[in-house]
Design brief:
By secondary structure, the chain is α+β, with helices and mostly antiparallel strands. The protein folds into three domains: 90 residues, Helix Hairpins, CATH 1.10.287; 48 residues, Roll (SH3 type barrels); 81 residues, Alpha-Beta Plaits (2-Layer Sandwich), CATH 3.30.70. 45% of the residues lie in helices and 23% in strands. The chain is built from seven helices and twelve strands. The strands form four sheets. It has a five-stranded antiparallel β-sheet. Strands 8-10-9 form a three-stranded antiparallel β-sheet, with helices on one face. A two-stranded antiparallel sheet has the order 1-2. A hairpin with a 4-residue loop joins strand 9 and strand 10. Helix 1 runs antiparallel to helix 2. The longest helix has 32 residues. The chain is elongated, with a radius of gyration of 34 Å. The termini are far apart. The relative contact order is 0.08.
Length: 286
């Protein structure tokens, strides 16, 4: 079967443009075989590249996966072009046409998409964060699930999935809480104004020192944070291994509550003293 389309010319027999598509059983068979074999070969190449990158250890898992997807897309495009070439299609014309279209679209309509794509490559190559790490990106807190070609996904509160365009990720601040092997705990607490501040600090430091997962270095510290309206506010600062952070963070506060009460130290709550003045005698009453 032979199909001719797109013939143009003038009465004088000026040169025109002809496009022919020759489909025979043999060419169709070769095209299908090219697709199947090309797909298999592309998968094998991508798998080999990813294994080599993981073996070298220069890129993290997220960056390796992103690079693998980019290579996959490029290889699949090549496979498709090879397959359609068996049908008599002018591949060179297709490549030039697609290049022109992609250039126009990128220049006028897909500036943000191109920006997101380029930012995704930079993010992955710089290893700013990896899958499973706790981060705050562009004001959103969560656990990294995936760095895609166009966007990054994080999971917040255990179930909510937040998708952030890579361009926004690159242009905004990134806080990585779990990249360092050690993590600081700042636990705030309050006592009454009549309390013995030295005893308060002694109790808090003793709690930190006795906890098995609190590190000895850097040393725990008690910071006199604020003289508030109804209380004196302190911060107990200590360090732990990053994987133990959430397990350790609640323990000092629980122990502080129990030991401060046992020592007779007031744990205040917000209150207001209101004074009433006797209109006749001028004496103040509370």
């Amino acid at each position: 079967m032979q199909i001719f389309t797109g013939s143009t010319g003038d009465a004088a027999g000026a040169s025109g443009m002809n496009f022919s598509l020759n489909i025979t059983p043999e060419s169709l068979l070769f095209a299908v075989l090219a697709l199947v074999i090309g797909y298999i070969v592309a998968k094998l190449i991508v798998g080999w590249v990813e294994r080599m990158l993981r073996k070298q250890g220069r890129l993290n898992e997220v960056a390796t996966g992103l690079l693998g997807r980019i290579i996959s897309v490029l290889l699949y495009i090549i496979v498709i072009l090879i397959a359609v070439s068996f049908l008599g299609v002018d591949v060179n014309g297709i490549v030039l046409g697609l290049s022109a279209i992609i250039g126009l679209v990128a220049a006028f309509g897909m500036k943000d998409s191109v920006n997101n794509f380029a930012a995704g490559i930079w993010i992955a190559s710089m290893n700013l964060f990896d899958k499973g790490e706790e981060v705050t990106i562009a004001g959103h807190w969560g656990i990294v699930q995936e760095i895609g070609i166009m966007a990054t996904q994080i999971t917040a509160s255990g179930s909510n999935i937040i998708t952030i365009p890579n361009g926004q990720v690159w242009n905004d601040s990134i806080i990585n809480y779990t990249r360092n092997p050690e993590r600081r705990i700042d636990q705030s607490f309050s006592v009454g104004y009549e309390s013995d501040m030295g005893e308060v600090a002694h109790i808090a430091l003793g709690i930190a020192a006795s906890h098995p997962d609190v590190l000895e270095t850097p040393k725990p510290a008690v910071i006199f944070a604020e003289m508030a309206d109804s209380s004196v506010n302190f911060t107990l600062r200590c360090w732990t291994k990053t994987p133990n952070y959430y397990g350790v963070r609640a323990d000092p506060l629980h122990s502080l509550h129990a030991e401060l009460i046992a020592a007779g130290i007031e744990i205040p709550y917000p209150h207001v003293d209101v004074a009433f003045r006797n209109a006749i005698s001028g004496e103040g009453q509370n």
